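pls ignore typos typing on phone
adenosine-5'-triphosphate + seq
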Amino acid sequence: MVRPATRAGRIERRIARAERGPADAVDAGPSRRGRRSTPYLLVGPGVAWLVLLFVVPLGSLLVTSLKTGSFAEGFETAVRLRNYSDALSESWEAIKRSFVFALVATLAAAAIGYPLAYVIAFRGGRYKGLLLGLVVLPFFTSFLMRTLAWKTILSDSGTLNTTVDRLHLFGALEFLRLVPEGSDRLLQTNIAVIGGLTYNFLPFMVLPIYVSLEKIDRRLVEAARDLYSNAFRAFRKVVLPLSIPGVMAGSLLTFIPAAGDFVNAELLGGPQQTMVGNRIQSRFFEQVDYPAAASLSFVLMALILIGVLLYARLLGTEELTG
Amino acid sequence: MPDERHAGAMSDDVIQLERVVKRFGAFVAVENADFAIERGEFFSLLGPSGCGKTTTLRMIAGFEQPSAGRVLLDGVDVSNVPPHKRNVNTVFQQYALFPHMTVFDNIAFGPRSAKVPKAEIDRRVGEILEVVRLGEFWRRSPSQLSGGQQQRVALARALVNYPSALLLDEPLGALDLKLRQALQIELKRIQREVGITFVYVTHDQEEALTMSDRIAVMNKGRVEQIATPRDIYDNPATLFVAGFIGAANLLGGTVVRADGHGGSIALSAGPTVEAVLEPSLALKSGDTVTVMVRPDRIRLAGPALGDAQAPRIAGRVETLVFHGPLLRVDIRTASGSIVSAHLGTDVAIADLRPGDDAALTWDPTHSVVIPDYKADPVSGIGATEGIEST
Ligand SMILES: Nc1ncnc2c1ncn2[C@@H]1O[C@H](COP(=O)(O)OP(=O)(O)OP(=O)(O)O)[C@@H](O)[C@H]1O
Ligand SMILES: [Mg+2]
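k done
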């Protein structure tokens, strides 16, 4: 990385090299030195970005999470580990709920997103671009607006709610624990929040799956068909395994933001749908208890990290064993 | 291991195409293909790019449905049977090995789909790995194999099913010349060993000539001729076949006399030659024809007139090209035609220089008369494509 800054320095180096021998001089010329440092220069902005906007705030968050005191009396830097045990015990229900909601939303997004991506990749023909555009089109409006729109769609007097009621589907939803016992409304229920999460993060599922499906050589499918597999077996043995990396990436991209989300629970849920994101938000804005909010954030992050590692482990080995 | 399951089948034709037509929209990719392939045969489909070879193969495999006509496998009409229910297997051009499976699992894919018992699968895969000489590679993934090894895995993956026929679409197309030649011999050996019918698509005429029992030459969707390599070379049925396979002098002329079997043809390049006229061609006096003579059948004529029956074309030496095993001499006749001869290198070069006068001759039985279906304005000009591959 150290480059001779001045012309004089450069000449000095050249002389030194010439003394070592001509081969050296040719080999380790300044251009080669420059080329060797290119990778470092290329990652430079990325590293700077990460340090400034990720490592530094993370450090400050860690310091905050261990502080004592209150907003009124002022916070003092300390190492108060109780913040963490308090965070865990007070918000345990919300944490569990967040993971369950995020998991169900991820599964639902995969169930909806895989066939969608499959049809676009394999049957899209010249409409592929258009169809993909439609998948991401909702993203041109704000996250908040989209979720508010769902609030209207799901509202008690809305068509959807009355239709579900008229078709006597609330019993089924109740059985699936998607609405509380005796409920006759969709808003402020599990299904509203899970539905919102699924909807909002669906493109994150569809796009990686699409990419992995699109990459698959169509002749592999023909080869499977040629080797006595019907269409379903060809899918199961060839297309599905080769698209698993896409499903894996899509699941992470859906699960991680869904687990930390608070907007869906806030707008579409009620007190029974509080997620860990809502707890962090209320600690921060309402109770102005920064250490509690910070420690809860760390707990969430750690749990997601553990979950992701377990998941990668699981899928990684599964892929190997076939 | 010839296929016992079909031993004693009704006919000995594994594959029959009956007036098969394939259209893509208004475009006719295959026109009236009508031929049968015998059991155990090495049958090649040869033709230039885009002539419909792959399409024909895909109709046999079941990936495309004929627009008209029927495809029969082992005497049974399979025109509407999906690929997985047809007892033929394909070796794809780029191999199409399953990248997420080992060599073993790739090869075992077919038998597993067909629900062959596990012990039997292990036996068969082991056996076929020996045949393609990949015994120690069974545990590897395709990405860890060289091109030639992948090619053999693709072959093994198809052969392990003991299909009625193996369909190979330019299986050696992606390999370099040396490896291709080695694998040509290997393929022939394997085909002899397993005794399975091979339907082999190629656009390499030399490959087709050296490997095939019979060749179907295709052009623009039509099968122009089906014959043994020797017959295709010696007696091309159409101008296209004559020009596509090997080097050929195509000399335009007019029939001046025709009787039952023979006749005379006045060449626009000069002389009138005697030639055999196939009765089936039903040529009569006045018909325009092309006389094809292979350059390797042409000799230098001495200054004295030899056999009065032998054709003789005189002209000026235009080019002399030394090809190693042969010496190519092009002569321009007074009428402007070029006639090419491949002479042995025993001809003393010192005797021949560009600009010299020379005369060429050949045995009359080596003239092949091809009727002109349509008037060809450039008749009389010798075509010599393809000679470089020798
Ligand atoms: N699915 C299709 N839709 C439209 N046209 C097609 C289709 N498949 C093939 N064709 C056309 O049919 C013709 C024959 O194609 P085919 O692939 O059989 O040629 P080929 O003889 O195998 O040529 P090559 O040696 O280049 O592989 C070509 O002109 C091709 O463009
Ligand atoms: Mg082809």
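Residues 91-320 of chain A form a domain with the MetI-like fold fold (CATH 1.10.3720.10). Residues 1-5, 21-29 of chain A have pLDDT under 50 and may be disordered. more later
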